Amino acid sequence: MEPGQMIRGADAVIKVLAAHGVTTVFGYPGGAIMPIYDALYGSPVEHLLSRHEQGAAFAAVGYARSSGKTGVCFATSGPGATNLITSLADALLDSVPVVAITGQVSTAVIGTDAFQEIDVLGMSLSCTKHSFMVTDVKDLIPTLYQAFEIAASGRPGPVLVDIPKDIQIAQVEYRTPLLAVTSEPQAAQTEIAAARALLTEAKQPMLYVGGGVGMAGAVEPLREFIEVTGMPSVATLKGLGTIAHGTQGYLGMLGMHGGKAANLAVQECDLLVVVGARFDDRVTGRLATFAQNAKVIHLDIDAAELGKLRMPDVAIAGDLRQILPALAMPLNITPWQVEVAHLGRKHQWDYQHPGSLIYAPAMLRRLANKLPEDSVVCCDVGQHQMWVAQHMWFRRPEDHLSSAGLGTMGFGLPAAIGAQVARPNATVVTVSGDGSFMMNVQELTTIKRRKLPVKILLIDNQKLGMVKQWQQLFFEERYSETDLSDNPDFVQLASAFDIPGRTIFSSDEVEEALTEMLLAKGPYLLHVAIDDAFNVWPLVPPGASNSDMMEEMEKQT
Fold it and tell me: Which member of 116, 322, 337, 442 is catalytic?
């Protein structure tokens, strides 16, 4: 394009995407975004048609989380834009870089209750890192560049850009804007020295690792820190995969459904080193009793998290890739390492389950051991999500995609679509429950159209399992609206989208069925029938200390 050449705003949008290395966008067309879809036609940017705007945005989230790139989604005004909101909230709470571009009614009729007009800018303020409405075509290109910068810098998050239709068709001169150079906060040497002093003094330190490590590109520095210090470690739901499987002293996930050894070790530590985590309530249990005898070193890129819930003894805001090497030092903690190893052996998972019924934890452990090196596991939300976190293992944090902060049912299938597009050679498996699967089941059409080889492991207990478990434990077995015994025939449903599958009922079918699913050349649905008596253990009751885990109950119905 010649310098100074005028193009439509819609064409400028596509050029900005291409300039940022965007190769695929997810979306659904409509009236107010039609000029942008016209500009897409024949462009180098591929568009994947989702069958619901929430599915498009979740696919963008899955794309971003599995690749480390910024995901992009499109929607039209009104209901198209409002359908994005849940997914944007999910991206905000899990710190995922997404740029959502929405069409809007023309500026001349904004505020008149025009057809499909809604104040999506106002709606999105609480569930995005930043939101824009472009009201002058001269601001369009700089705004889009700024959106990509905001989404990916610092603590990542979703950014929405609302573009009225007349801005899309207006002429603009395409020039690459100059952006201010931003820099991450630098850790002060006094803070580093204070942290090193606490590390030297500690006799029973624990490393508490969150999702921020993977987002910072600090997995290798974190693993080197563990190797040098020998510090025992635990991870949050989003931190899974950060610590290498088999690392000495690694006890898995902590928190409400964390392992007993992980929770007990944290409760007994005298120094808690918190890296890229935020003291979420599902991790800490009753906050006042969480590692209450420990001093705290808190490392995070987001200074707003430091001291928000637990006042640290040393707080360091900055780039983990620089901070972790500065803190790595050999520690004299042999007795503590021995004690943690003993805890791990004493409370290790037991996969021996009598009878012919399929025991989901054992099945998922088998699946983890069978997955190839390049694989991604996506989850929906519920009991199956916690079983995946407890019993599967992951090579990298980008290999495990789970809706952690918002806990959104319907996340798994569209997120798997995004992951498969981002990593076409990877084996992508979405583990879903019969409740969550129906939330975005329309995205099976997206899989069919694109011929995506997504594997679906559907664990079916004909219940909203996690809600039912809480009703059983805390609401006197009053099972209000958690029965799903009228589920469809899921294998037949999948076949309507040309997706083959099978149903299994007994444990002796598991090995063959998992192999068949993983060897399938295209998409595949494995429907696994389990007994609704199986619950997720251990469980820290709401408001209780992490020391007070429930491990079983006398009656299961």
Answer: 116
